[in-house]
Amino acid sequence: MMSEPSTRTGLVRSMARGFVGRCPHCGEGRIFGRYLKVRPECDACGLEMHHHRADDLPPYLVIFVVAHVIGYLILESELNYDVPLWVSLSVWPVVTLAMALGLLQPVKGAVVGLQYALGMHGFATLPGAKPEAGLEDAHLDRPGLDGASPLFRP
Ligand SMILES: [Zn+2]
């Protein structure tokens, strides 16, 4: 079913749609079948998503953000308040875990949206488009690239 024209959604909108768990192409179908399991394709527009390569980027970003926020909050609370040790030992691990688990799915969705917007991996081909109309082919067909570097020679 093709409910959307085959034009690529912009970077910010794609990542925003992914962040809220929606298909970056149409914004209607869901990305995730389970907590972190990406659906093979969008139920609404047919965008294939099984070839995404989010890999370690979502947890890396989540650790980066959560560590800075929690670290700052711990520092501020220790410097400004006389927090009992048992409170620190019971509150911060729970808050850290909750924040990390809460952010992991939205961040992974945003990473899938990023890959879609940039036409990375299998996202070069949009639903309803001919395979040769993808971004990767456009890069390969760019004139002057052949022989520009020894790395590109067959
Ligand atoms: Zn879709």
| Major sheet | none
Bound molecules: zinc ion
Name the helix and strand elements from N-terminus to C-terminus, one letter apiece: HHHH
Approximately how much helix is present in the residues? 40-55%
| Mean pLDDT metric | 85
Q: Quickly give the structural class.
A: mainly alpha
Distance between the termini: 40 Å
| Cα Rg | 21 Å
Low-confidence stretches: 141-150
Textual characterization of the structure:
- This protein has 154 residues and is mainly alpha-helical.
- It has one domain (11-141).
- Helices cover 47% and strands 0% of the residues.
- It is built from 4 helices and no strands.
- The chain has helices at residues 11-19, 57-80, 85-117, 135-140.
- α1 crosses α3 (85-117) and α2 (57-80) runs antiparallel to α3.
- The longest helix is centred in the middle third of the chain and has 33 residues, at 85-117.
- It starts with 10 loop residues before the first helix and ends in a 14-residue tail after the last helix.
- The model is unreliable at 141-150 (pLDDT under 50).
- Bound molecules: zinc ion (ZN).
- Zinc ion (ZN) is lined by residues 23, 25-26, 28-29, 42, 44-45, 47.
Quick overview:
This is DUF983 domain-containing protein. This protein is 47% helix and 0% strand.
Write the layout of secondary structure elements.
Blueprint: H1 11-19, H2 57-80, H3 85-117, H4 135-140
Helix pairs in contact: 1-3, 2-3
The site of zinc ion has 9 residues, from loops.
Kindly list the characteristics that best describe this protein:
154 residues, binds zinc ion
